[in-house]
Design brief:
It is built from 10 helices and 17 strands. By secondary structure, the protein is an alpha+beta fold. The protein has 2 domains: 5-175 and 286-373, Aminopeptidase (3-Layer(aba) Sandwich); 177-284, Alpha-Beta Plaits, CATH 3.30.70.360. Strand 1 (42-47) and strand 2 (53-59) form a beta hairpin.
């Protein structure tokens, strides 16, 4: 497969509707797997539930050094309420832009990784080799990669990780961690004209929100990522204006920096919101690789001619599957590097520049070659 084919492969991936929920990545996963199998990769599938399929593909391998891992997700977010001017599932092109849901986030990255891997497939015998991990259910909690992290025999080993999320081909050395939870508050219903006979659950939620607004994390500012953040993103409660609400729920999104003790933080929050019941549905640590790490510096040099500048230490605000994969890959050095535009992620009329897709193939090929030699 040549670099030119990465664009057509992106278009092929875009034609699969993998909106999450429900995801249903199976057919898309099997199509990607066939391309890799035809190039000589051994392929295994894993489903954490029916039709939620992830792919683990390997080639090469040599004692003394673990393989390089390239990873990306196959699911995409819903289309949103605004009308698209392009077909979100046909890979429609306009100039240098390739449109479609998931073009930037992140089927172009997956396609470029596959294209680069296929190019090198016949050159990886007697080298540390390569493992591609294509995940289901990254959106809304990285569920697919969390499932894979619990399957060490399937996952094997990796010595470094490249995540093809959208960075405009700029190598990022990490991203913040994530804690997401719902807090539920119970009350006692009563007639709205006699509130003294009830207990208002919304008032309990409101007091909790006020406490969260003033919450101090008490951790030092990270030199690149800055400080942790917290956002109360949803509030639900009540069934009628003339009823005292007996149930209210809030949704909270926390982004943490390296060094944050998640267990201690959650313990503080449970004490702070003692009148509520916390349902924690995402708890993944920050990803950070020291910019001076030798492999990172080599990748920086690979990217320099294409970027026309020397990369500096930067991080992304969003989460990736790396937070889970590093658990099974023993904290391997990790870079987030992909052709998509971060600002296009989750947008109406999402697109990716085709020239960036071609550039990313060249970058991935150079990273694979460097890993095989060093």
């Amino acid at each position: 497969m040549s670099t030119r084919d990465a664009v057509s492969l992106t278009r092929d991936l875009l034609r699969f509707d993998t909106i999450n929920p429900p995801g249903l990545e199976r057919d898309c996963a099997h199509m990607a797997a066939r391309v890799l199998q035809e190039a000589g990769f051994s392929v295994e599938f894993s489903e954490y539930e029916k039709d939620r399929t992830s792919v683990v593909a390997r080639i090469g391998g040599k004692a003394g050094k673990d393989p390089l891992c390239l990873t990306g997700h196959l699911d995409v977010v819903p289309l949103g309420t605004r009308k698209w001017s392009k077909d979100p599932f046909s890979g429609e092109a306009d100039g240098d832009r390739l449109y479609g849901r998931g073009s930037s986030d992140m089927k172009a990255g997956v396609a470029a990784m596959i294209a680069a891997a296929v190019t090198f497939s016949k050159k990886l015998n007697n080298t540390p080799g390569l493992v591609l991990v294509l995940t289901a259910a990254e959106e809304n909690g990285c569920i697919g990669s969390r499932h894979l992290a619990g399957l060490p025999k399937l996952m094997g080993k990796a010595g470094a990780i490249v995540v093809g999320e959208p960075t405009s081909n700029y190598p990022m050395v990490g991203h913040k961690g994530s804690i997401k939870f719902h807090a539920t508050f119970n009350g006692v219903s009563a007639h709205g004209s006699m509130p003294q006979l009830g207990v208002n659950a919304i008032y309990k939620a409101a007091k909790a929100i006020a406490k969260l607004e003033e919450f101090q994390f008490g951790v030092p500012e990270h030199p690149v990522m800055g400080l942790p953040t917290m956002n109360v993103g949803t509030v639900e409660g009540g069934s009628g204006v003339n009823l005292v609400p007996d149930l209210a729920k809030i949704g909270v999104d926390i982004r943490t920096v390296p060094g944050t003790d998640h267990a201690a933080l959650l313990s503080r929050l449970k004490n702070l919101l003692s009148e509520g019941e916390l349902n924690i549905y995402a708890d993944t640590p920050a990803v950070w690789t020291e910019p001076q790490e030798a492999w990172v510096q080599r990748v920086f040099e690979i990217c320099k001619p294409i970027l026309k500048e020397a990369p500096a230490a930067r991080t992304m605000p969003y989460m990736t599957d790396a937070a889970n994969l590093r658990k099974v890959y023993n904290g391997a050095p990790t870079l987030i590097l992909g052709p998509g535009e971060a600002a296009m992620a989750h947008q109406t009329d999402e697109y990716c520049n085709m020239e960036r897709i071609r550039q990313s193939v060249a970058i991935y090929e150079a990273i694979i070659e460097d890993w095989a030699k060093n």
